[in-house]
Design goal:
Elements: H1 7-18, H2 32-38, H3 45-52, H4 81-100, H5 104-122, H6 130-152, H7 156-169, H8 174-186, H9 190-203, H10 208-237
Helix pairs in contact: 1-3, 4-5, 5-6, 6-7, 6-8, 7-8, 8-9, 9-10
Amino acid sequence: PQHVVLYPLVSKSLRNIAAGKDPLEGQRHCCSIAQLHEHYSLGYPDLDELQKNPQPLIFDIEVLKVEAPGSYQQDPWAMTDEEKLQAVPLIHKEGNELYRQGKVQEAAAKYYDAIACLKNLQMKEQLGSPDWIELDQKITPLLLNYCQCKLQCEEYYEVLDHCSSILNKYEDNVKAYFKRGKAHAAVWNVAEAQADFAKVLALDPSLRPVVSKELRSLEARLREKDAEDKIRFKGIFSQ
């Protein structure tokens, strides 16, 4: 067509994608013309002007990079259900490789993408059904890997939330107890940390050396904190 009337909405969606947002953010289910009339502002002055005054457009397309055949990976939101299921092992592998390279934040993003794919599929299944459970069992190791990244990034409360959600469903998950114990210890929830580490030992006694190391570290930090508190309070009461 001579005038690209709907381009502003398309451009907004593309800009959302570039920013990592939902491409349909802010839109509702209605025809495109209704969308145009409903949106007084698209959030971008140039698109607002183009929406008010449609005109012929010329596009300059710049090639940013050339990828080898088969190397392109769609964003999860753009995948079909089958593509999501096929992509998860590949994304998981990429996350593991990034983690081995010490790129913890990037690895966490990969695990998050894989979890998002499976969660999207799981939402279409009946809660507690065999298919739902099968997907949940695929989500759990990815979520534990994600929590390991968050531990290293010192985002402890997120680890507490995710590990607790796992343990609400799988009470014998040793890794979830261990990671939650480390997170509790980091935020000074001493009794909770000790309880989680005790549960780890009850489920897997072979982990005693690792748990003992964590408990010794916690005790050393407590002694250090106690000494600092004594100095701090001594200064307050001596004034």
